[in-house]
Amino acid sequence: MVSNHRPTKVIVDLEAIQANLHAQKAQLAEHQEIFAVVKANAYGHGAVPVAYAAKEAGATGFCVATIDEGVELRQAGLTEETILVLGVIPSYEAVYAAQYDLSVATGQIEFLHEAQELLAREAQKLKVHLALDTGMGRIGVSQADELQALVTFLEHSPEQFDFEGVFTHFAQADATDTSYYQKQVSKFNELVTQINPQPKYVHSANSATAQWHRDNPSNVVRMGISLYGLNPSGHELQPTTALKPALSLVSELAFVKKVPRGTALGYGSTYVSPSEEWIGTIPIGYADGWLRRMQGFEILIAGQKCPIVGRVCMDQLMVRLPGKLAVGSPVTLIGRDGDLEITAQDVADYAQTISYEVLCNLTDRLPRVYRGN
């Protein structure tokens, strides 16, 4: 359930998303196009509004993780663009995926055998992208004979399958050491050259590849985290395009009180005030995706840095204030307040994780408010 009747919300700048896509598009070769990766509710930004903004900015397709994410886009009116489901699906869902004109990833001959029978029975045709495991270890085939078996099966089943693409995913395209990336490129090229003729889409470029390996011949860039204005490598490499963070997380002070020296705060009494202090309470907690481990992190309140004190609760957290502040004072947990800014990467650094996880953790309880476009 979305909690619209409290001040805590996610603000998404759709113009920033479009600016990020335009910046990436300006670096592409003529034969390359962009698929906007909008899986996981567009990394917490909201799949449908982001997809429409990306389409307007020049994206020609979308990548999702599940069938349901693809169906959501189709039902929202995005009926012409390629929608690629990057996760493998069970064969019994093949007909449903075909009915919504979804492209699906596979790397198993068993899937093709089982899906063919079901598709033939319902007179449906499924678009397929063959997944090649060149070193990521998740899905796909890694041997030439396995790949040839898949290609041959697809060639002999034109009424049930449209062999639309072949792809891989790089594990270390965002690293300063490019040796493993180059190893995967070589493996991908070795396998792809076995396919003749090649399908419409031959793709391997994720956000990191597009940023730091522009010579990659992938005819599709699957633009993920950089679409949302964040650096795929964290701090290891500097981005080659201007990135504008699109998401802010904001709230307000809900309660303010002065506590005497020696006051224990929160579960486990992990914070005890060393002196008389002003304490504020903010209506956000780990049920919203603001992790319990964020105790001690400084957020912005009325343009000032304020540390989280005590453990983050399920629905609320406490902060030490510089003085008495009014209930309703603006709070920024991610975003900009005056000259100060907190990025999702800052949150990730403190939580010892990556910005992707910070964004995807933001739950549906938080309303999404859209600006621009």
From TrEMBL:
EC numbers, comma separated: 5.1.1.1
Listed GO biological process terms: D-alanine biosynthetic process; peptidoglycan biosynthetic process
Family the UniProt entry places it in: Belongs to the alanine racemase family.
The keyword Magnesium is annotated on this UniProt entry: no
Role, per record: Catalyzes the interconversion of L-alanine and D-alanine. May also act on other amino acids.
Source organism per UniProt: Ligilactobacillus equi DSM 15833 = JCM 10991
Domain Alanine racemase C-terminal: 246-371
PROSITE patterns documented for this protein: ALANINE_RACEMASE
Identification of the protein by name: Alanine racemase
Residue positions of the active site: 39, 267
